[in-house]
Design brief:
Order of helices and strands: HHHHHHEHEEHHHHHHHEEEHE
Helix content: 40-55%
Shape: elongated
Number of strands: 7
CATH class of the largest domain: Alpha Beta
Oligomer: single chain
Distance between the termini: 31 Å
Strand content: 5-15%
Length: 324
Amino acid sequence: MGSLRGTPSRPSYALWWPYRRGMDDREELREFLTSRRARLTPEQAGLPNFGGRRRVPGLRRDEVSLLAGMSVQYYTRFERGNATGLSEGVLDGVSRALQLTEAEHRHLYDLVRAADAGAGPTRRRALAQQQVPESVQQTLDAMADVPAFVQNGRLDILATNRLFRAVFSAALDTPRRPANFARFVFLEPRARDFYRDWDDTAYQVVALLRSEAGHAPHDRVLTELVGELSMQSTQFRTLWASHDVREHRAGVKNIHHPVVGDIDLTFQAMDLSSERGLQLIAYTAKPASASADALRVLASWAATDEGADFDRSSRTSAYLADQE
């Protein structure tokens, strides 16, 4: 789990190189469809299973094509990454056949859009520089009793309020700016103590990054982040290979704070209409609970301890990589 230092070994370099040169959009589409097909049995898809040994896990291509209402040749061409000229009706049929979730359905559309734009590895570019508006920071600061922050699709922590800095101080304790939840979860050993449900958190982080990779397939900074995590974390590589995706809207975080102990939080994520791709996420605890008491203790401590103040310059993060 520790970070790699010095010149990468040959295996590490081999893992890093595909991300350095950019991922193949059509290959991403192929692997996603193959993985979704492999997880479904004929029984789950409502098809008869006549027994006998099957040569592939899950559904065969001809079974998916039958369920989707298309020819085997057409579906085979699609699964191999040829997304040219596909209609929404065809994509909807494939989504139904593979029983995709809403997040997976949107991810499929993103992958098709990227694959249709051109074949082969595509030159990656850094996203344009973004800033969290001062009005959003004022909103965060006004939420004195609620830990809240703003993040982008790469899970960079871009803006915070004082209570968030007190609760999530472990994730922010890094010289690298902006701090990043994915790096914390997979590259910091203390993350396993901080997140009491580390396995579920790790799965969620990778699924969110997968979704972002489909939405912004040519984001060089994201590609390099995935390469870095793939090189340094076996757990990340395993989860990344599953091609699972999800959205970040609501959920639960069970953490262990080094000062006040266990805290159980629920969160709600809201897209910022003024800044595309950014979310404001706020955490709450059940009223009259031990977790609510813990938040009050941390809020009191943070209000009087200047040391709890996280570097406000993190509100503005440079998204442009070094010049070509």
